Amino acid sequence: MRPVRVVHLGLGGFFRAHQAWYTGFDEEWGIAAFTGRSAGLAEALTRQDGRYTLVVRGPDSDDLQVQESVVAAYAGSDATTWRSLVADPAVSVVTITMTEAAYAPDGVVADRLVAGLSARRLAGSGPIAIVSCDNLPGNGEVTARVVHELAARLDPALDEWISAHVSFVTTMVDRITPKTTDSDVREVAEADGWADAAPVITEPYTEWILSGDFPAGRPAWERGGARFVDDVVPHETRKLLLLNGGHSLLAYAGSARGHETVAEAVADPDCRAWLEQWWDEACRHVPLPDDELTAYRAALLERFANPRIRHTLAQIAADGSQKIPIRVLPVLRAERADGRMPTGAVRILAAWIDHLRGFGAPVSDAGAQPYIERAGSVREVLSLLAPDLDGDQDLIAETERLVQESKANR
Ligand SMILES: NC(=O)c1ccc[n+]([C@@H]2O[C@H](COP(=O)([O-])OP(=O)(O)OC[C@H]3O[C@@H](n4cnc5c(N)ncnc54)[C@H](O)[C@@H]3O)[C@@H](O)[C@H]2O)c1
Ligand SMILES: O=P(O)(O)OC[C@@H](O)[C@@H](O)[C@H](O)[C@H](O)CO
User: Fold this and answer.
1) Distance 102 CA to ligand 1 centre (A)
2) Nearest 5°: CA angle at 275, between 270 and 278?
3) Whose CA is nearest to atom 5 of ligand 2?
4) Answer CATH for 234-409 from 2.30.30.40, 1.10.10.10, 3.40.640.10, 1.10.1040.10
5) Is the pLDDT reported for residue 26 higher than 80?
């Protein structure tokens, strides 16, 4: 069996389609993975020795690949095992996929990492790399900030030890991975011939771009195509604005038109035109050559249109209060500063406000309540979301116009 040398926090679908898949190419490295809290998935994986089927689903066919890099799985509530594994000198890397919301100051990411790193320091186990794989700009820097803030408050000596021993790696991650459904489980069991309780469906496309140090070594992720660069920012900006921003547009505007999945929404000529309009605006703010952006847009359209990937708009719509500031506001601000009215970006904001008012996908967002209370007034939403923009009368008028347009289109 592979030795445990990576610990993962956030044992969900994406981790199993992405980081675990890349680690699968290096047999010297095994992963111990922790769920957020509950035990169900950890128990299911433990019953099958960590093995699961990754269904790589193209537009015409499936490629079933049994994955073996996860050698142990635990409930996130198992704090004792978490601390002892992060403290283990054989462990050199911690990867994370806990969603954007988990990086709040004092949130679950800071809490778990500080507990684990404190145990590592006491054990004298030496340096380690922390690799955030969540859709956050500068995810390494954000992780470092929340960890240092908490550690400094709890124990300044621990904070110093973290500065000297812990590397925070920044990454751009990309592979569309919808939530596994019960019918996926049944279908995979039939195709596989064994009762896999934890399969994952993903697309063929995958990307992982990383920047940072691995002071105690790392798996040979480049064998799966991972790229190590000096600066992730251009790549992360491309992905967050074009893919994730495009997703958010379809999630709110597409679901309000009755669509359930990304493929259905992108087949709707209006939604498709809105997507292109958003991409035209967003591309002005991605520091990459035009031909690279054109190729990425073409590939994205094919990926979004894959009818065999059932990626629900409701899944993407979740946690909008965390996602809109990252995926849409940078373009909105930059365009307004340049004196333009970016109707594509404003449409995402308007569609999100419509969603907060109860149209389209249901609201599933722990941070939504203050926005729901203000959703009747565009200005009040803006004063909470982006106070620097709440005096922009033209922006408010354009947002109101698009909210009305959306009402007329329903
Ligand atoms: N699914 C994708 O296509 C995809 C692609 C790129 C990046 N990502 C990143 O990965 C993250 C996870 O995606 P996923 O599809 O694996 O989701 P998922 O729901 O399958 O898994 C997320 C894991 O994090 C845990 N978690 C989430 N919020 C938590 C909280 N506040 N407290 C405790 N535990 C919490 C969950 O319990 C689960 O173990 C996304 O939010 C995103 O940042 C996902
Ligand atoms: O995973 P989230 O909730 O951050 O965002 C939903 C989707 O936009 C996202 O999961 C994409 O599918 C993914 O980022 C593709 O790589």
Assistant:
1) 9
2) 125
3) 316
4) 1.10.1040.10
5) yes
- The rounded Å distance from CA 316 to ligand 2 centre is 6
Distance of CA 323 to the CA centre of its chain: 10
102 lines ligand 2 (CB under 6 A): no
Report the C-alpha gap between 283 and 237 in whole angstroms: 9
Tell me the per-residue pLDDT of 260-277, one tens digit each, with 9 for 90 and over. 999 999 999 999 999 999
Helix, strand, or coil (residue 231): coil
What CA–CA distance (Å, rounded) separates 259 from 54? 27
What residue spans in the chain does CATH classification 3.40.50.720 cover?
Answer: 4-230
Ligand 1 and 159: CB distance under 6 A = no
Ligand with minimal distance to 103 CA: 1
Q: Which helix (H) or strand (E) holds 34?
A: strand 30-34
Quick: pLDDT tens for 65-122.
999 999 999 999 999 999 999 999 999 999 999 999 999 998 999 999 999 999 999 9
Overall average pLDDT of the 149-170 stretch:
98
CA 69 to each of CA 39, 43, 181, 327, 328: distance values in angstroms, whole numbers, following the listed order: 20, 17, 23, 32, 36
Domain with CATH 1.10.1040.10 in the chain: 234-409
Residue nearest to atom 15 of ligand 2 (CA): 176
Average pLDDT across the chain, whole number = 97
Range from 3-7, 104-108, 252-256, 273-277 carrying the lowest mean pLDDT: 104-108
Phi, psi of 9 (to 5 degrees): -115, 120
Q: Is 201 in the pocket of ligand 2 (CB under 6 A)?
A: no
CATH architecture designation of domain 4-230 = 3-Layer(aba) Sandwich (3.40)
Rounded to whole angstroms, how far apart are CA atoms 84 and 89?
Answer: 10
DSSP bridge partners of 132: 96
Ligand nearest to the CA of 238: 2
E strand intervals along 226-363: 227-228
Compute, in angstroms, the gap from residue 10 CA to the centroid of ligand 1.
Answer: 6
Instruction: Compute, in angstroms, the gap from residue 176 CA to the centroid of ligand 2.
Output: 7
**Atom 31 of ligand 1 has which residue's CA nearest to it?**
102
Nearest to 309 by CA among 201, 406, 233: 201
Burial class from Cβ neighbours inside 10 Å (0-12, 13-18, 19+) for residue 51 reads: middle
Please give the DSSP secondary-structure letter assigned to residue 312: B
